[in-house]
Design goal:
Pfam families: AP_endonuc_2
Number of strands: 8
InterPro entries: IolE/XylAMocC-like (IPR050312), Xyl_isomerase-like_sf (IPR036237), Xyl_isomerase-like_TIM-brl (IPR013022)
Number of helices: 10
Helix content: 40-55%
Organism: Aquiflexum balticum DSM 16537
Structural class: alpha/beta
Strand content: 5-15%
Number of domains: 1
Radius of gyration: 17 Å
Largest sheet: 8 strands, parallel
Distance between the termini: 5 Å
Strand order of the largest sheet: 5-4-3-2-1-8-7-6
CATH topology: TIM Barrel
Protein name: D-psicose/D-tagatose/L-ribulose 3-epimerase
CATH class: Alpha Beta
Length: about 280
């Protein structure tokens, strides 16, 4: 069975000791790992939380976003360089946590648009920085997995076809693909086909319901999803990412205006769904 993780953004985007009892309970449920958002500037906290995860036997993955001032597709070299430096800082904090994988839409700035379709020069700009970031991440033992987002949060990579195009240009063994069922639910014609198309490059996977609530409570086709993962012999993480209003600042930043599910209901029912689907389809 693939390793199962849970993103603690359901509770908080901050890095603090308040996460410790949450991590303890996730471990008790049966989770193999926890995923953390890297954004807080409390550097010592990353090491403390990383040590706690090691002590209780939880593995770690991380996620991040970039601001408009760090946009890798900007025509301004100084902005792209700032983006590279931010990614390196995020890799350092991920290393402090003991992260294995850094995922997220860091191929470009979150919710930042050019009022035009993506251009080849933008893919080239992003790829140049991602290749350099791949070198840096490899030294830290962390795999980079850029993520395709829906059209309301990103324009460079909405689909697996676009993400694959970008990764071909990046051409780095330490920069692979991530798949998120929430975004794919909006952008892909068939989730199974999309998973199979990105299969050779796929290295991280988010289990996320169509409304970001409890997996299994909406209309994401989980049988189709897990059957495709089994077909491509996917061996990476299956990490639940669901959002709530528990951290108002973060919720406001990503347009979460209502409570989709309670975090522990999401964690407990979601874990059960992944186990059942994994056993059913032979993951």
């Amino acid at each position: 069975m693939n390793k199962i993780g849970f993103n603690v953004l359901a509770w908080s985007a901050n890095m603090s000791d308040d996460l410790k009892p949450i991590l303890d309970r996730l471990k008790k449920i049966g989770y193999d790992g926890a995923e953390f958002f890297v954004g807080s500037d409390d550097v010592p906290a990353y090491k403390r939380i990383g040590e706690h995860c090691r002590n209780i036997g939880l593995e770690v993955t991380t996620v991040c976003v970039l601001s408009p001032e760090e946009n890798l597709v900007s025509p301004e070299q100084a902005v792209r360089q700032k983006g590279l430096e931010k990614i390196k800082w995020i890799i350092d904090r991920s290393h402090d946590l003991g992260s294995q994988v850094l995922c997220g839409p860091f191929h470009s700035a979150f919710a930042t648009f050019s009022k035009a379709a993506p251009q080849e020069i933008e893919y080239a700009r992003s790829a140049e920085i991602l290749h350099q970031a791949g070198d840096y991440a490899a030294e830290a033992g962390i795999l980079l997995t850029p993520e395709a987002l829906n059209r309301f949060e990103c324009y460079l990579c909405n689909t697996m076809e676009q993400l694959s195009h970008l990764l071909k240009i990046v051409n780095h063994p330490n920069v692979k693909a991530m798949f998120d069922t929430h975004h794919a639910n909006m952008e892909e014609k068939k989730l199974g086909d999309a998973i199979r198309s990105i299969g050779p490059r796929l290295a991280h996977f988010h289990i996320s319901e169509n409304d970001r609530g409890t997996p299994g409570s909406g209309h994401v086709p989980w049988d189709e999803t897990f059957a495709a993962l089994a077909e491509i012999k996917y061996k990476g993480w299956l990490t639940i990412e669901g959002f709530t209003r528990n951290d108002p600042d973060f919720a406001n930043a990503i347009g979460v205006w209502r409570q989709f599910s309670e975090p522990w209901e999401m964690a407990e029912s979601g874990y059960k769904l992944i186990r059942e689907m994994g056993e059913k389809h032979g993951l």
